[in-house]
Amino acid sequence: MGTGLKYISTLDDSVSETTIGRKSSSLARVKKAGFITPDSFCINSTAYFEFINQNKLQKLIDVELGRKSIEEMRWEELWDCGLRIRSQILKAAIPDQLIKEIKEKIPPDFLKSGVAIRSSSLQEDMKNASFAGLYDSYLNCNNFLSIFDAILKVWASLWSDRALLYRKEINLDSENSAMCILAQRMIQGEYSGVGFSTDPNDRTSDHLMIEIVPGLCSGLVDGSVEPINYILDRSNLEVIDSKERIEKQHSTIEINHNIVRNVGKILLELEDLFKHPVDVEWSSKKGRITLLQVRPISYRQEKDEKRSWYLTLTPNQKKLSSLADEVEKELIPKLKYEGNQLALEKLTPLSNPDLAEKITSRLHQLHYWREVYKEKFIPLAHGVREFGQYYNDNLKPQDPYEFIYLLKSCPRIAGQRFKALKECSATLVKSKGVSAYLTTWLAQSRKKLTEKNIIAIKNEPNGKSFCEQYNLLKKKYFDIAINSACWKNRDDVIITLLLNYSTAKSPLDDNLKEQQLLNQYLLTTDNASHAKALLKIGRLSWSLRDDDNLLLSKIESQLILALNQAKERLISLGRLQRSVKINEEDAHTIAQALTETSSKPIRLTSKERNHANNVTTNIKPRQIKGQPAVPGTVSGIACRISSLDDIKKFTPGSIILCRAVDPNMTHLIPLSSGIIEQRGGMLIHGVIIARELGIPCVNGVGQALDSVNNGDRLTIDGTLGIIILEKKCGDINSNNESTD
Q1: Fewer CB within a 10 Å sphere, N or C end of the chain?
Q2: 3-state percent breakdown (helix, strand, coil) of the chain, nearest 5
Q3: Which domain CATH number covers 32?
Q4: Same domain for 352 and 228?
C-alpha cells in the first residue's frame, strides 16, 4: 500500500474492493473523478480477520450459528444470537498494531472535527441490492476511545440479526465474511441530505429526488428529523414539486433551492460515472457539497413477507416512543376494558339468535385484537432489545442478559397472579379441614365444584374466607383460556395448583443488585436522559410482553364460554354429541346452527388439535443442542405440558417440556426445576419468569424435543444451552381420569 501500513489505506491508494469494501471503493472512485469527499482512510479486511483470530472468536461464532438452522430461528432467536456475538466482540481487544496505525493516521485536528466510523462490507452497496442500513455507522467520535469502541460495534454489526436475516443474499458465512471500515472526518454542514438520481420506487421516472435537513444527515437517516422533500426534472433540474415541512425565512429557502440544484447536477454526473442510478448522502457547508457515501439505487422489491414483517420489529427511537405511549395509554386500557365488559355479560338468558350474535361479535373482537397484537404489541418488544443493546454497549457485562435485572422490577399480571396463588395456597394449608375435603374431592376426578361442594367447604373452619379468596382468585386471574379450554371452569386444575404452591419458590430478592446495576448504568452512559428514556420504554416493553397475552386471552376465554353455552343448547336439541370438542374455528358454524330451526346433526370441519403427551421415536440422542436462556444446571424428570389436564398431572420438581410456555400457564414455572421450550428467544414468556426465579432454561430446541418422552430423566444446562438425556423413569402422566 502507498501508506506503508498493514491495516490502513487512504482513498488515494490503489487498493482492491475486496480489501477495503464497496463503500470505501466507491468513494475512492468518486474522489478520483474530482468530486469533494471528506478526509478519509480505510481499515481493511485483514484487520478484521486478525482481530477475530487474536481473540479466538471464530469458534464462538460457529457455536452460535450452529445451535440451530437459521431458517428455523424465530425473530427472538435471531436477535439473541446476534446479541451474544456482539457482546463477545465488544469485550475483545483490538490488535495493538491497528491501534498504533490509527493513532498515527488521525491528527489532533481530525479529532476536533469528529470522526465518522462507517461500515464498508463487501456485501453492501450492490447493484441488485444496496442493503442500506444493514450494518452500523457511528458519527462524531471525538477521542480514540470512542473511535475504537465504534470500530468494535461496526465489526459486531456484521453478525446482527438483520445481517443474519439476509445471510443468503450477502453470502454470510463465519469463516470468509469480513467487515472493512471507512473512517471520515465529520463535515459539520449547515444542511445535509440524501439524493436519488431517479425515483427509487420507479426506475423509468424522468425526475430525481432530494431530501434535506438542517445540520447532520443522521437525523434524516434514522427518521428522527422530518426532511424537506424536493422533486426535480432530470432534463433541466427545475424543482417541479417540494414539500417544505420546516418553517424558514424566504432567503433561506432560496439558498436551499440553490443547494438542491447543485446536488441534482452532481447526482446526474455520478449516474454517468457509475453507469447506473445512484443514491448519495451529502453535506453542504457555505454552498460546498461534500459527498459522504455513494451507492447504487436498488429497485428489487421485497417479496419475503416473513422478512418484511420482521423488519417492522425494529422501529426507530421516535416511532418506538410513540408506540409505547399508544400501547400503554390507549390500547392496553382498551383491551382490559373490553375483556372486563365481556366477562360481565350474562349469556344464559339470551335467546339462541342473540347468543349467535354474541359468538360472532366476540370472534370479531378476538381477531381484531390479534391483529393489534401483531402490529403494535410485538414491535414494542423492540424496547427491550434497544435497551439491552445500549446497556451492553456501554457496560460490556460478562452476562449479555444482565440488563434484565433492571427490567424485571416492573409489575406484571403474572407476578401479581403468582403472589395471589401463594396467598390463597397459604390459607388452604392453614385450613386443614378445607384442605382434606378438597384432597378427597380431587381423588374423585371431578372437574368443577358444585354448589353442594361449596356449602360443605364453607362449613369447615375458615372455609368461608377461603371460598371468598378462591372466587376472587378465579375471577381476577383465571378468566383466561389455554388451547380452547377455559381455566375458570376447571376447579380441579386450580385447586391442584394451590396444593402444589405450598412448596413453590419465592422470587429471588435482587433489589440490592438491581440498585447497584442501575447506579452503574446511569454513571457509565454519557447521556443520562437518553439512558433513562430507554430504560423506561424497556421496562414497559418487558411487562407488556407478558400482560398483553393474558389480557388477550381473556377475550378468547369469553368466546369459548359463549361457544360452550351454545354447545349445551345444541346438545339438548340433539344436534351435537357431547363428546365432540368445539373450538374457535367452529364459531361461525355454531352461530349459524343457533339461528336455524333444523334438527339435523351439525358437521364441524375443524380438526381437533393434537396434544399427544408422549412422543415415541427410534432416535434417542444423548445430547440436544438449544439456546442458552437462563443459566444454571439441574436434573429432573421430563413432563410435557400442552393442556389443562397436563397441568393437573404436573408434579412439583419436574422439568417442563413444551412448545412454548403460554402466558396463561407461567404460574407453573415456580413449581418446576427447569424449563425446555421448542420456541426460542429471551423475550418469550417462560424465560421472563424463569429468569426472575433463577430456574435453568433451555429453549430454541425445535423438533429435537420430539425425542424426549414423559418420564425421561434429563440434565439441562441453561448456561451452555444443552440437554443431556439420561434414562427413562416411567411416564409421569400415564394415569387415567374420568371426564365428568
Answers
A1: C
A2: 50, 15, 35
A3: 3.30.1490.20
A4: no
Which residues, other chains included, contact 453 with Cβ-Cβ below 8 Å and sequence gap of 6+?
Answer: 441
pLDDT at 254 over 90: no
| Alpha-carbon gap, residue 449 to 679, rounded angstroms | 35
Query: Containing H/E element for 562?
Result: helix 528-572
Q: Distance (Å, rounded) from C-alpha 38 to C-alpha 185?
A: 6
Name the DSSP letter for residue 718. Answer: T
Query: Does residue 324 lie in a domain region?
Result: yes
Cell of residue 660, nine digits: 412454548
Query: Tell me: the pLDDT tens digits for 571-608?
Result: 999 999 988 888 899 999 999 999 998 889 988 875 44
**How many residues are recorded in the chain?**
740
pLDDT in the model for residue 273 = 95
Cα 572 from Cα 730, distance rounded (Å): 42
Cβ–Cβ < 8 Å for 621, 705: no
Q: Which three cell numbers stand for residue 200?
A: 427509487
The answer to whether residue 730 is domain-embedded is no
SS (H, E, C) 298-324: CCCCCCCHHHHHHHCCCCCHHHHHHHH
Residue 516 cell numbers, joined? 447497584
| Residues 324 and 355 placed together within one structural domain of the fold | yes
Say how far apart CA 338 and CA 335 lie, in whole Å.
Answer: 5
Q: Is 305 exposed, middle or buried (0-12, 13-18, 19+ CB in 10 A)?
A: exposed
* Inter-residue contact 594 to 566 (CB < 8 Å): yes
Domain count for the chain, please give it: 4
d(CA 620, CA 200): 54
Residues 444 and 544 in one domain: yes
Q: Compute the C-alpha angle 509/510/513, nearest 5°.
A: 155
Q: Where are the alpha helices (DSSP H) in 478-527?
A: 491-500, 511-524
Please determine, for residue 510, whether its predicted confidence score (pLDDT) is greater than 80: no
The separation between the first and the last C-alpha atoms of the chain, rounded to the nearest angstrom, is: 83
3-state SS class at 53: helix
Give the domain CATH number at 660: 3.50.30.10
| Within-domain flag for 180 | yes
Handedness of CA 273, 274, 278, 282 (dihedral sign): negative
Calculate the average pLDDT of the chain: 85
- Pair 589, 715 in one domain: no
For position 704, what pLDDT does the model report?
A: 75
158 in the same domain as 106: yes
- Per the structure, the complete domain to which residue 415 belongs is given by 316-604
Q: Of the candidates 296, 324, 345, which is a domain's last residue?
A: 296
Strand partners, 635: 715
**Beta carbons of 208 and 197 less than 8 angstroms apart:** yes
Please give the torsion angle defined by the CA atoms of residues 233, 234, 238 and 239, in that order, rounded to the nearest 10 degrees: 50
511 against 368, higher pLDDT = 368
CB environment 662-694: b (16+ within 10 A), e (fewer):
bbbbbbbbbbbbbbbbbbbbbbbbbbbbbbbbe
Contacts of residue 110, defined as CB under 8 A and 6 or more positions apart, other chains included, come to 39, 185
Q: How far apart, in whole angstroms, are the C-alpha atoms of residue 146 and residue 123? A: 26
The half-sphere exposure of 389 on its side-chain side, counting CA atoms within 13 A, is 19
The Cα–Cα gap between 92 and 95 comes to: 10
Q: Which residues, listed in sequence order, are joined to residue 688 by a DSSP beta bridge?
A: none
Helix, coil or strand: residue 427: helix
Instruction: Please indicate, yes or no, if residue 734 is contained in any of the structural domains.
Output: no
Q: Which three cell numbers stand for residue 545?
A: 410482553
| pTM > 0.70: yes or no | yes
